[in-house]
Structures are given as C-alpha cells and as structure tokens.
Amino acid sequence: MTGPAQDSLQDLAAAYALGALSADETRRFEAFLATSPETQREVEEYREVAALLALGGPEGQTGGGSLPGGLRDRVLARVGDQQTRPLAAARATAARPSSAVWVALAASLLLAAGLGAGLVSSRGRLAAVETELAARNTTLDQTGRRLAEREATLNSILEPGVELYQLTSNGDPEPGIQLFWNRQRNQAIVHGFRLKPVPTGKAYQLWFIKDGAPVPSITFKPEPDGHAKVEHVPVPEGGKLSAAAITVEPETGSAQPTSPIVMVGALKRS
Amino acid sequence: MPDTTSRPSPADGELVARAAQGEERAIGVLYDRYGSVLYAVAYRIVGQRADAEEVVVEAFAQAWRDAPRFEAGRGSVAGWLTMIARSRALDLVRARSRRDRITASAAADRPDTPPAMGQFRADPGGALDHDERRRQVRQALETLSPPQRQAIELAYFDGLSQSEIAERLQEPLGTVKTRVRLGMQKLRECLRPFYFERGT
Q1: Which one of B17, B20, B95, B178 is most buried, by most CB atoms within 10 A?
Q2: Cβ contact (<8 Å) for B83 and A51?
Q3: Domain A6-56 - what CATH class?
Q4: Is the ipTM, as predicted for this complex, more than 0.95?
Q5: What are the residue boundaries of the structural domains of chain A, listed by start?
Q6: Tell me, what DSSP letter sits at residue B68?
Q7: Domain ranges across chain B
C-alpha cells in the first residue's frame, strides 16, 4: 500500500505519544519523525499530556494518593540489587580510580603501564557493552511489538466464523495469497507468501469479483522475503461475491484492472 | 523513609544524572516526588493493588538501569517515568490475559477495593503539587466529548491501537483517529501550564 501523505503523518503525533499506532504505522511515523523537528516537539508535548492522564481518573480509579507502606523500601531494595546497577556507574568507577590506586601506580611504572592499559581497555569494553545493551534493548522492544502484532493477527484469524481462501497462480501453490475472511465483520486479513517483487512504481492489487465485475480493494507490496500482510481489509457487502483476484497495478491503485490476473481463488457463498 | 532534607531540592534531571552515576538515594527522591503518579498509572491499568505495587517497583528498577540513556531536554522526568510504568503495567496485563486464555479461566479480575484517597506528595522544590495538577487534568478532561475521552483512555490505559479501538467500538477507523487527535489537541491547550518539570 502507498504510505500516507506527510501531512497525515504529522496528524499521527498524538496517537504515537499515546502508543496507539500499529507496528506498521509506528515504523512509518518514526521514519518521518526523524526528519521533522517540529513533529518531535509536538510528540514531546503530547507525551507530557499523556503523563498527566493518570491524575484525571475518578477517585478510586487512581489507587489512592497514599502509597502503600513499605513500597519505598521495596523500590530501593530492588535498585540496590547489584544486578541492576547502571553501567555508567561501573564506568565512572573504572574511569576515576581512588588515590590509593594512584599511589600504587606511582610505586611501579611497570604496574602503572599495565593498569593504565587495563583501564583504557576496560573503559572500551564497558562502552562496547553499553552500546550492545542499548542495541539489544531496541531489538527487544521491536521484537515485543512484532510479537504483540502477530498475537493480535492470530487472535483475529482464530475468531469463530473466519474462513480461509487460497488465491493461487494457475493452481501452483507458490506464490500464494491466503484470505482470512471474517464474514461477521465484513473484513479480511490478506497474507501473501513467496511473492515475486513488483517493478518500481507498481504494487499488487486485490480485487473482489462481485456480481461478475471486479471491485477494487487494497494495494500492497511484498517484503524482501516475499511476505506481505494487510489487515482490516473491507469486504464488499451486498451482491454475490464469487472470487478474489490479484493483478499488478500502479502503486496508487486502479479503478479497473489494467493487467492480467496473477493469482485468483473462488469464494464460497455463506 | 522519605527524604526530608531542608537543602534546596535538586532538579529532576539532576536526580536522574545522579542515579546514572550510581547514587541510589536519587531514586528515593524521585520516588518521593512521583511514586504516587506512577502508582496511579499502574493501578488504573492493572486494577489490583499488589500488581500496581509490583509495577512501581519494576518501573523504578528500569529507570535505574536506563538512567544513563535518559536524554535531558527531551521531555520531563515525570513523563519518562510514567511512560515506563505504563509499559510495565500493560506488559503485566497482557501476560495475565495470555495466562487466563491458556487456562481458560472464566473468572474476571475485579479491581480490589481502592484504598482511601490521600494527598499526593508535593514536589518539595515548591513546584505545582499533584493535587492542583489532578484538579486541572480533571477539568481538562471534562472539556472533551465522551467519545473523545473514551478513545484516549482506551489507547492510554488499555494499550489499544486506534484500529483496535475502532473494532472494539464498532466505529470507523477515521472517526477514532479524529477523536484521538482532536481530544489530545484540546488537552494540550488546557494542560500546557501544568506539565511536569522539564528534564533539563
């Protein structure tokens, strides 16, 4: 699918600060955010608003203002756990040896050289560990978001009454499209696999064949690994849906197919 | 015990910097200032006192670990701490939800009887206290239409995306997006004078 225009991306700032964007929207918005200092300021402000929201609940929904006895001690005990000591503290210790260490260093040039090299080395190692930890935290956050998104997809697919249809290329099982159709919601999830890349400026477009005529639906591009997933795809209501098909169209989509069908599958009537 | 020193109170950002250097006491002062706010966020999301306490403990432990990466000038320390507490609370609710689904437990979690309201501890530095902020936030929320407020609260406290909110409310996605955007704009205008102290 084509990405939203820049002005609509800016409109997502409030939802982003609330954590209300999907993983895909978050990725696109963060790419835009990196280029827009104005939007960065806007997001920061909305985060301040979000931080205040907790104070706005009715009495009884805020848990009360008095903190439970002993909680402060529990917090400090947890923080005091050596396992959670910030790396910066360890780095500061390594970077600022005590006077006793300096006396010892002065006592032996050879030892001083060895310790000095050791300090530089350990500072470098700590910096590297800190960088790696930050990168792993980022990866963990991203993985968590992806898992949450996949769980949501799985839950949607497992809802009662969801039907699965396969769209294939001349009966060849690969590449293929799976269409999970939730008739109650008139929505579908489209999952593609082993899809071939599309030319620049082009995208796959889904069509529903209703009363014998194609009804345009979403456009999408496969990921480099050949997968594609689009959720909340509206399914046309009324009339007789007989099939769904895929063509390659300009990435903005077409009102009528302009190229041959590359994948197709029949849809049963309920 | 809470910090009762009579010396001028360090700014929030300075406390985070001290925590980053390994000063545990700095976390104690941040707890005295914002523990109540974090507890309120946690309780509102998890609905149980014991779980809310665990969230507060984990949130400050994470703040301790992440203190070296806190970017002063990128929002308030309170906003940063609140965001951490919200994430941990939502994690706990999701884990609880997964566990409940697996065990097919039909018993719904009912919030404990909430404790009696007390006073939020004011910033000893003399900044706006939480009672005044709470009053202003409630007034600001009253300026929203009920659907705007509902959409914002489902996003923040239930951790739902706009698409999920639209599904839950059986409303068009565009309508939900507009409610979130306009509601947050209105809150921003009302609450700008009442933001927490900046992290600088």
Answers
A1: B20
A2: yes
A3: mainly alpha
A4: no
A5: 6-56, 71-155, 162-266
A6: G
A7: 10-105, 128-195
pLDDT of residue A16: 93
CATH architecture for residues B128-195: Orthogonal Bundle (1.10)
Asked if the C-beta of A52 comes within 8 angstroms of chain B's C-beta atoms, the answer is yes
At the top level of CATH, which class does the domain B10-105 belong to?
A: mainly alpha
> What topology is assigned to A162-266 in CATH?
Immunoglobulin-like (2.60.40)
Cβ separation A66–B165 shorter than 8 A: no
Among B82, B154, B169, pick the best mutation site for testing chain A contact (most A Cβ within 10 A).
B82
Q: Which residues of B touch A233 (CB under 8 A)?
A: none
What is the pLDDT confidence band of residue B53, given thresholds at 50, 70 and 90? very high
Question: Which of the residue ranges A27-31, A120-124, A204-208, B162-166 would you say has the lowest mean pLDDT?
Answer: A120-124
B137-196 pLDDT, tens digit each: 999 999 999 999 999 999 999 999 999 999 999 999 999 999 999 999 999 999 988 777
Q: Which residues of A touch B82 (CB under 8 A)?
A: 50-51, 54
